[in-house]
Design a protein that fits this description.
With 201 residues, the chain is of the alpha/beta class. It contains five helices and ten strands, in the order βαβαβαβαβαβββββ.
Length: 201
């Protein structure tokens, strides 16, 4: 059985087969607002023709329709495609529901229904088949190491020194040393730079 490839822009095609124009409009408006591309057919026969032409990613179909019922349409689609099919009906009976699942439906919605819940069911079925909204692995973000802030004489703590070359700052005794003549000198222990800033204290 075939399955259309998920669209690169995530604008999935939904076929709505419903003979009640008011319900069809309600469904298509809510699906369009959710970012889906909708096509509406008023009968089962029109629905089959629309299915062949549009190759939808999911089918929403009423059950009781003239010419071809939702069960018949489901069986016809299922014979050649594994797209998700959700049946909608006012005949809320166990027999209808079981018959819908036997014909190949994936989900079942009873009238009257909450349009937002219907959209959620559509998303859930698309996710199950296409995994289109599965969370992606979080991107690896490189956090740059901030440059050491400039430290002037006024910000060097009492008894500390700061190397003007590499920026290292520490207690003054770490900078103390002697030269080859035994004279006391101050040298950065890191870069050996002699240009230093001392605290005022």
């Amino acid at each position: 059985m075939t399955l259309p490839a998920p669209p690169a822009d995530n604008k999935f095609r939904i076929l709505v087969v419903e003979d009640d124009a008011t319900i069809a409009k309600l469904v298509s408006i809510n699906l369009s607002m959710a970012g889906f591309e909708c096509r509406v057919a008023a009968t089962g026969l029109d629905g089959w023709e629309a299915f062949v032409v549009s190759n939808p990613h999911l089918v929403l179909s009423d059950i009781d329709m003239p010419g071809m019922s939702g069960h018949e349409l489901t069986a016809k689609i299922r014979a050649q495609s594994s797209v998700p099919i959700i049946l909608i009906t006012a005949a809320n009976t166990d027999h209808n529901e079981m018959q819908g699942f036997k014909s190949g439906a994936d989900d079942y919605v009873s009238k009257p229904f909450n349009p937002k819940l219907l959209v959620t069911r559509v998303i859930a079925n698309l996710r199950r088949v296409y995994r289109y909204d599965a969370p992606a692995a979080p991107p690896k973000i490189r956090i740059p190491t901030p440059a050491a802030p400039a430290v002037d004489e006024a910000t060097v703590p009492d008894g500390w020194s700061k190397c003007d070359g590499c920026g290292y700052m520490g207690p003054q005794f770490k900078f103390e040393g002697t030269d080859i003549n035994g004279n006391r000198i101050f040298v950065c222990p890191h870069c050996k730079n002699r240009s230093l800033t001392f605290s005022l204290g």
